[in-house]
Specification:
- 2 copies of one chain form a homodimer.
- Chain A contains 19 helices and no strands.
- By secondary structure, chain A is mainly α.
- At the A-B interface, helix 12, helix 13, helix 15, helix 16 and helix 18 of A face helix 12, helix 13, helix 15, helix 16 and helix 18 of B.
- Chains A, B: It comes from Oceanipulchritudo coccoides.
């Protein structure tokens, strides 16, 4: 392998950031509206920035401790950790900054120019996040690889980067998840239910916080989630390559260096394919939105699979490794489709039907749908695991994860598009731009909801595979220090770990679920207070104190994100040093299983309840305000923290635990 | 070890059955009431028998296939299977037969003699089931041990017995669970909600079916569940002993024969301790019911721990094995207390409090409580596993399970007492015996609810340990055929199994949950039809066709219990022969983890909702018919299938899968 190849990844990363900057300039140049629109957009933007700043402060404190501790293990690894944390934080910041700029511009585009231009604005607002995530990953991982990718002994330094990314992710995901649902539930319960004013009404003091929440949770939270899966998958695969025996690597490549570089190579061409996909969306923007987005993702994926073949040919890697990429991509599609089926197909309609017999049956059928929805994704993951390990050992599993995530540039763009479109609708409503504009933003938003559901399934699948790869790397690293290391399931120490690992996702879910309830309670009190104490607010003669609501949601979220993050970081340390590497290995597997199962169940139950409500709102079973509708509204409210707070936290919980274990592995 | 010792277990089994017969004669001689009481009791009794007969038919069909297939493996094992299935079925039949005789006699005792006599009648009605379960186990396992316990090579024949017991258990548990909740939900929804008549009103055609369901689900279902855990724990421990290496057994006993016999020895003295405990309850029956029952269980446990010490001294087994018994007993108590806390302590009161903000918050806080409730039990199981395996290897884990279950005679009695007391209350209401009688039966029932919740936690813990022991035996058996057999977690084949195993509990839960919904729907239609078509029914001038409702619930339950049973039996066969013993081993561990987690979560969420409703009915947060109460009623309805159908099925699912794997292990 030519040594100058190493520079490709960081160079492409820089190029990707440049593209993101160009897009940002174009978005920035679009009319952002005046008067009311500008004012509302400004409030959302400022709210998001307030949250970000305070979150960064907390992160800095928590992170400093880790930096110091890591310094004693290896100063370089500590620096890599800092870099990883900064990269993730910067990517989140840029994504959110631009998303809160794109929202009002989408509103204006819908109002002044119509659906095509609105779609383009919303989508390209999202692409900045997509490109930033992919590019920061390439820049960071690729940059470290230039320095530390030469020798297998140095590769562990890059693990620090993964750990930094994971730590930021758990803060963003959990904090953002609590913020967004506390604001959502609070604003809805007092506004819609108690005071009888419509959704997104400007008189409601919680509405701005609700819109901030979309950005905080769905843009920054989802972005940091995918960023860490993306980086971790690459880093874990490198780690596996670094600890492979000669006979293993000889079976699939001409040199171990090729195998080390391959994840970066795939991610690099993945970025180019994502850019092409974005072009396709732009070209198809005059078609219906759903189709344009689907064409974009699809063409990026197909292009990537073809390009991956060439990359392997060029690097002298066996075809069987390319088949692993194929498995990863196909698996991602299957899990996405399964998610779509459970949240939008027959199970969702069964829930809607069961609403005729009341809330209890809505709850039972929703839980049953969620429980059942784990079957196909788990079988898919098991199938990928079996096939890829047959094709290329545990390295193949890592490559499947890398393949699934390589086109993150476009998948993340589409995920970020959702909240931009949602915000645009909110701004249109608050500014009173009329039904025509609202219809356009609604249609964009609807597409966003479907893509969000699929994106969630995809994120879970990717996190599971990345987690698997890190666990495999962990086992290899421990074994490289203890020749006789075995992770036998019949060993009581391992089984003990499996049980401990299994309970952690349940514990963290219950903590985050209760956190939303408590935070929402604080929001409710504040909104009630404002309605009571600000004269003329309900008549529209006074402005609500929206900033105070943002403040309360921020405070509540930050206070309650600490415990889950601490559990994720500390449990591997305690178990690893307290009980040894076997128990820790068992714990990772138990936690992986528990996290994937709960993540799927919660995401799909929640998604199905949400869509069942929307299905009824379209006029089925009595339509809006019928008894059936009321029953489904309860389902939707219950599903909110499940699908947007507790469920998504699971992805990161397992990855944080796995990466911390990988980092401490040499010390055990 | 003296060879004549072997005869002790079956002899004690026969003695226990004789005691049960004596108690039955005394119960039978009590006044059973006349007129209305007799008539209602007769209807419940006949309904239960109708269900039993039809369930036996289905079982016979399914069982015959297994008998034939097993015959080809080993005719003796096939016979043992038949014996195990028959023992479990007979125990269930006797228990239910007598429970449906004791219920009306409890009502009469409450009416004519007061609370003391009522408690005695209900409790001793339950002891027949308790004694029968323990005695049939000793008779069956002990009898087979006389013939096949001599040589390690023959011990596998006894596995057939365990498989028979497990197969019956899954039919009884799932079928009974669907029946009881379909009847309960159906009767409540049409009676209480639609027609506004009180619970247990004789005009409601579903009330008899509801009372039948208590016996079918809580007596026969719970009995077969504990019977199989009881037998499986002993059999698995024998299997571990049979495959121990010389150095392993030498560390803890003077001969391997002692270790083989020890489980039976412990179960034998356990029966005697249970009998003593029953005497204690009888002596304390003039105190408050809860205290009498607690004194009985406690004294039986303490006596057993002391007796176990003597047994080991006598058999020449090390003290460290006795400590394993101590771990098992202590673990059972801890899990029981944790269950009591989550279903009756602060988390339950938090749910009640959250009912002030509506159904959605009741649902969220209930789910959060259930999720969190897994933590202590899982840590306890992990702790038992770690300690006992340190003390005596995997044999220690098996002995902990045996120790936890040895006093099943009294724990099962108390479990069976609950539905008898519940039925007695139903009969009192239907026969219109007035408030005084109802108050007595209500107080007995309340105690029954607490014991039922603790019993559920205990059953889960016991099933988990028994499952662990069987899995350990499975690994040993496979290893005795393939020297190089390893169950390495880093082996993709094993990990694939873990994923497949993890999804099965979720799949089976969703199937059983939906089954309750569908079956309840059929009940609702029939009850509505009767109210509509039978003239004068609602005015009390005509009798409902209760038998028809029993019939419908029976039909619905039998139809839908087949699929879960088939999944439990066939999945190990398919995975074992299709993917090999490593994947099957991984699957068992994944399924064990998933089953224990879901079982705990569902039992405790359901129990907490149930008790939160009762807490409000006592006058808190507005009391009966307040908005808070309505919200909690929904929680209770959602919790019903979770805690009484899907949750309990988990215990058996894992044990069936494990025992089938153990039986097919030599063929893999």
């Amino acid at each position: 392998m030519n040594d100058s190849l190493r520079f490709i990844a960081p160079a492409l990363g820089a190029f990707g950031l440049f593209c993101a900057f160009l897009i940002y300039r174009r978005i920035r140049a679009l009319p952002s509206g005046t008067g009311e629109i500008e004012d509302i957009a400004e409030q959302i933007h400022n709210g998001a920035m307030v949250f970000m700043k305070r979150e960064f402060k907390l992160l800095a404190m928590f992170g400093s401790v880790v930096i110091v501790v890591l310094w004693f293990k290896d100063p370089y690894e500590s620096l890599a950790f800092t870099l990883g944390a900064l990269s993730s934080a910067v990517a989140g910041f840029i994504g959110m900054y631009t998303a809160t700029k794109a929202n009002s511009r989408t509103t204006v585009a819908a109002y002044e120019k119509g659906p095509q231009e609105a779609l383009r604005t919303a989508f390209f607002g999202g692409t900045i996040m997509g490109l930033t995530v992919a590019s920061m990953g390439l820049l960071g991982v690729g940059g470290l690889f230039v320095f530390f990718g030469n020798t297998a002994g140095d590769i562990h330094i890059i693990h620090g980067f993964a750990m930094g990314a994971s730590l930021v992710a758990i803060f963003f995901r959990v904090g953002g998840g609590i913020f967004t649902k506390a604001a959502d539930v609070g604003a809805d319960l007092v506004g819609k239910v108690e005071s009888g004013i419509p959704e997104d009404d400007p008189r409601n003091p919680g509405v701005i916080a609700d819109n901030v929440g979309d950005n905080v949770g769905d843009v920054a939270g989802m972005g940091s989630d995918l960023f860490e899966s993306y980086c971790n998958a690459q880093i874990a695969t490198m780690a596996i390559a670094a600890t492979m025996t000669a006979s293993s690597w000889q079976a699939i490549a001409i040199s171990p260096a090729s195998l080390m570089f391959l994840p970066l190579g795939l991610a690099s061409v993945g970025l180019l394919c994502s850019l092409s996909g974005m072009l396709v969306v732009r070209l198809f923007a005059h078609k219906e939105p759903a189709r344009a987005l689907r064409m974009g993702t699809l063409s990026a994926s197909i292009l990537f699979i073809a390009a991956a073949y060439l990359v392997m040919l060029f690097l002298g890697v066996s075809n069987s490794v390319w088949l692993c990429v194929l498995c990863g991509s196909a698996g991602g599609v299957i899990i996405g489709l399964a998610t779509e089926y459970y949240t939008g197909g027959r199970p969702m309609r069964e829930i809607a039907k069961s609403s005729q017999t009341g809330v209890a049956t809505v709850m039972i059928s929703g839980l049953a749908a969620g429980l059942q929805s784990v079957v196909i994704p788990l079988l898919t993951i098991a199938g990928i695991l079996l096939l890829t390990s047959e094709l290329a050992g545990l390295y193949g599993v890592g490559i499947a994860a890398v393949g699934m995530l390589a086109t993150i540039g476009i998948t993340m763009s589409i995920d970020a598009y959702g909240p931009v479109a949602d915000n645009a609708g909110g701004i249109a409503e608050m500014a009173g731009l009329g039904k025509k504009t609202r219809d356009i933003t609604d249609s964009l938003d609807e597409v966003g909801n479907t893509t969000a559901a699929i994106g969630k399934g995809f994120a879970i699948g990717a996190a599971a595979l990345a987690g698997l790869a890190i666990i495999a790397a962990y086992v290899n690293v421990v074994r490289s220090h203890h020749d006789d290391f075995m992770l036998q399931l019949s060993d009581p120490a391992v089984l003990t770990g499996v049980f401990i690992g299994g309970l952690l996702p349940f514990l963290v879910s219950s903590i985050t679920m209760n956190a939303v309830g408590l935070a929402a309670g604080e929001m409710i009190e504040e909104i009630r207070r404002q309605f009571r104490e600000i004269p003329g607010l309900l008549d529209g003669n006074a402005k609500p104190d929206s900033a105070r609501c943002v403040d309360i949601a921020t405070e509540a979220a930050l206070k309650r994100m600490f415990l889950p993050a601490a559990i994720a970081v500390l449990s591997p340390v305690v178990v690893g040093f307290g009980f040894g590497p076997s128990t820790l290995g068992g714990m990772l597997v138990g936690a992986l299983l528990g996290c994937v199962l709960l993540a799927l169940m919660m995401a799909n139950s929640g998604g199905a309840w949400d869509n069942a409500k929307k299905f009824i709102e379209k006029g089925n079973y009595g339509g809006k305000n019928s008894d059936a509708h009321h029953a489904c509204v309860v389902g939707d409210t219950v599903g909110d923290p499940l699908k947007d707070t507790s469920g998504p936290s699971m992805n990161i919980l397992i990855n944080v635990m796995a990466i911390v274990s990988l980092v401490i592995a040499p010390l055990l």
